[in-house]
Amino acid sequence: MPASPPPDLSRFINIDDLEAGAREAVDAMIYDYYAAGAHDEITARENNAAFRRLALVPRVLVDVARRDGSIQLLGARHDSPLLIAPMAMQRLAHPDGELATARAAASAGVGMVVSTVSTTPIERIREVLPTPLWFQLYVYPDKALTQRLVERADRAGAQALVLTVDTPVLGRRERDVRNEFRLPSGLALAHEMPGGEQTLPHVHVESGLAVHAAGMLNPSLTWDDVDWLRSMTSMPVLLKGVIRGGDARRAVEHGVAGIIVSNHGGRQLDTALPTITALPAVANAVGGRIPVLLDGGIRRGTDILKALALGASAVLVGRAALWGLCCGGEAGVRHALEILRAELDLAMALCGARSIAEITPDLVAHH
Q1: In the beta sheet, which residues pair with residue 258?
Q2: Of 191, 212, 264, 335, which one is the catalytic site residue?
Q3: Is the per-residue pLDDT at 342 higher than 90?
């Protein structure tokens, strides 16, 4: 049988187009799972809207004929200030799932954060991903199981751990409840889970993920666990889910290697502060001692530039990459990344910034 032709992605000229295509390409339960926020989805919407309330104030008469978007992050060079955020169960979106995303990240020269709740083992992802690979971690109630997962990530070549700290319990995602969200037959979670359960239950008028998470998440997680995690691995540890300056200062005191300003894509606590709004206070609290990254709401290259101007060292993109995965697998993710990188490059040129270092706070104003 001849190979199927590559998907025609030319009609998708921005990330919103890719989302519209994704809505058509996958089952409604899967689209809703990826798109949903918690409760009324106010924070999920505000993550995007808050960027629109920031205006750019460009410099003029700057020679921008040559522009460099590369950065240094945790000792590694990145071709752009962009990483793939940790996203669960990507084989829901496309049969190749995380492998397609990893191949696209490799071809675009960007790093990827692999989710604990991946449908592809980290070892297989590392085989196709020469660019930086980080592993997102939930600390299970069973510490021994958590330690085995950390050791597995280390053996697989992960270069950093990203500890999610905004999920002591799972947020209420009402779309998943209505859809009785579950994993389709034949799909399983690739990493060891508490109780050995590698799939999600089908529960009447409830989210299977919510039921599964009740045994996976640890509501007793504290700063002591951050210290414990740092003590048992040589990998740098970043905290994902910080939106308060005080928590950021405390993270520095506990020796973490970086902070990701995130509200879990609006999927945890609804009406929580949008990430771009929270970013300046976190960046000021850290004071340049460790890198601060931002996750949530990135839809345009101008969003990336605004985040960098307000104190982020880099950004992570989640749904934007997922919409590409839904529309065209590896080629779709690559297309999404190319859209964002081209838009960032254009924004840099029009703002008079020849390098990431020249993206400074004076380029942004509230209006």
Answers
A1: 238
A2: 264
A3: yes
